[in-house]
Specification:
By secondary structure, the chain is of the alpha/beta class. It folds into 2 domains: about 160 residues, HUPs (Rossmann fold, 3-Layer(aba) Sandwich), CATH 3.40.50.620; about 120 residues, Elongation Factor Tu (Ef-tu), domain 3. The chain is built from 11 helices and 14 strands. A hairpin with a 2-residue loop joins strand 11 and strand 12. Helix 8 runs antiparallel to helix 9. The longest helix has 20 residues. The two termini are about 35 Å apart. The relative contact order is 0.12.
Length: about 300
């Protein structure tokens, strides 16, 4: 996949089959749009083009610092590339760009910059200033604009419409299986291993403390999780704690720490990826370290049992 940063880096295509959106998480609903985009491009000898925006429009328009994203830009690029998209156009989203009317977006981006011959959009997709652009407007003006448009119906799993917001809510509620179902893959979090207070190794559960790479990346609910952990090119099983470690730390500082099973290598400074598989329990304070060790042994047994049952 070719990644183009800004419209000046993109060369107008003669037969571009296009979709646009934030694609946060590249979830099940997004995937339906992407599959259809690739299918049309293949059947029409066209080139598949995804237009996305960074940073997320809500961070700019509403200055919504509370929104947490399902995917960083790097993660989104990888996911779209793995899917088989030929071109990804990343448009910087700023206040100036947000003021483009829907007609300006169509003329300046879709037609002039990209060369759109067919636009594929999701259910109730809106674009342009104040989200004034719509499928109905595009369909009505297709002849004048010189490209056709196709709308993909809303995607449902068990009669529930899939959306990035529903996935965020699931992760923040500890409903990991639901998030996995909607994403069509485990939720992931990437970060650098930093040095902690090393208490874990003194009780037989050494941990890798992780510092996340992007402030806006969503951190799931505090608690203990069964995980898969990618170190280099190897995938390990393990447990993860997200919380303040009330039994061993009175600072109240939130940490993310992974106990990687059957692993003893020093990996300070390395970047690892965490894959959330199951929420085991909420974090709690124990009376002493022996009680904590006993609970961690139970957590490990639950984690092993979970993976054995897959």
């Amino acid at each position: 996949m070719q990644v183009h940063y800004g419209i000046d880096s993109f060369q107008n295509k003669s037969n571009a089959i296009v979709t646009s959106g934030t694609f946060d998480g590249v979830h099940f609903g997004h995937q339906k749009i992407l599959k259809r985009l690739i299918e049309i491009a293949k059947n029409s000898n066209g080139e598949s083009v995804v237009i996305t925006f960074w940073p997320h429009p809500r961070l700019v328009l509403n200055r919504d610092k509370t929104i947490k994203l399902l995917s960083t830009l790097d993660e989104k690029i990888k996911l779209l590339g793995d899917f088989g998209i030929e071109h990804l156009l990343v448009i910087p989203f700023n206040e100036s760009f947000s003021k483009l009317s829907s007609e300006q977006f169509i003329q300046d981006i879709l037609i002039k910059a990209v060369g759109t011959k067919k636009l594929v959009i999701g259910y109730d997709h809106r674009f342009g200033k104040n989200r004034e652009g719509s499928f109905e407007y595009l369909q009505k003006n297709a002849a004048r604009l010189g490209f056709s448009v196709e709308e993909i119906p809303k995607q449902e799993i068990e009669e529930i419409a899939v959306s990035s917001t529903k996935i965020r809510n699931a992760l923040q509620g500890g409903k990991i299986e639901t998030a996995t179902h909607y994403l069509d893959r485990p939720y992931e979090l990437t970060g650098k291993v930093i040095k902690g207070n090393q208490i874990g190794r003194t009780i037989g559960f050494p941990t890798a403390n992780i510092e996340t790479e992007d402030y806006n990346k969503l951190i799931p609910k505090e608690g203990i999780y069964a995980m898969e952990i990618k170190v280099g090119e190897q995938l390990f099983k393990g447990m993860l704690n997200i919380g303040i470690r009330p039994t061993v730390d009175d600072t109240g500082q939130k940490v993310i720490e992974a106990n990687i099973f059957d692993f003893s290598k020093e990996i300070y400074g390395e970047t690892i990826t965490l894959f959330f598989r199951k929420f085991l329990r909420s974090e709690k304070k124990f009376s002493n370290l022996d009680d904590l060790k006993m609970q961690l042994r139970k957590d490990r047994k639950k984690t092993i049992a979970f993976f054995s049952g897959l």
